[in-house]
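[09:14] KT: can someone run the structure on this one? pasting the chain below
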Amino acid sequence: MASSSHQDSVNVGQSTTDTDTVVRVIPTKRNREVWAHFDMCEMANGSTKARCHYCNRFYAIAANFSLKNHFEKPYCKVLKQQAASGQATMGSEGASLFAYNYEMAREEMAKFVIQESLPFNHFDNQRFTKMVQKTLQPRYTYICRATLRRDCLRLWKNAKQELISYFEKLETGVNLTSDVWSAPHGSPDSYLCVTAHWIEPATWQMMKRTILFKLFDYPHTGEAIYKAIDKCIATYKLKEKILYISFDNASNNTSTVSHLRLKY
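[09:31] RB: done, structure tokens below
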């Protein structure tokens, strides 16, 4: 994942003082004590350089000893100024130097896109990348829509698996509500949604989660609805925990209830 993600940053990296350009950040397993402070960067001229996390200057990667001296002596101008003033940048874990983390930036951006219902190409803009690099974080690299989509799907899959594990251990009943509706604006598509409702035993709080939201092709028969809901119940390990299922009064839902009663 990490390797492919850095590939997505081609041709939109930061320019160096040598008017060269970062093509991508290369994952490395070299001395972690040293490379925790540097990025290994592939340059547009074909060379490979180390970029300091603090001063953003570029150095040869031949000797770890020289790179280690850069931040331990320190030869790094940013670290030298902070040592002289006796001040440190506050990080999330206390008084420590902030280190930009590309993977964390990707994850937080994916969460933001999901929570705000933004399109995947919302940040797919070189002017946005340039603004961030100039004013907020010089080491920021462009995150394309394909990478953002993959990250959002990964977060969704992780959240789904966590919910499955939670339901498997849940010691109380769960109620379901379901509905089928047509898409607006003249679209021919229809959707099926199933929402789970339950009381959290530890806090007595009412809980709800959407556990199924899918494109639902015609015909919308009771048997087709039953099969979708039955598969959903099996996926989330709810077979022995369903108390009630609520529908509207459409005739196909009456047929669905008949099928569910036969099995459950």
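[09:33] KT: thanks! The longest helix spans residues 145-169.
[09:34] RB: yep, looked fine to me
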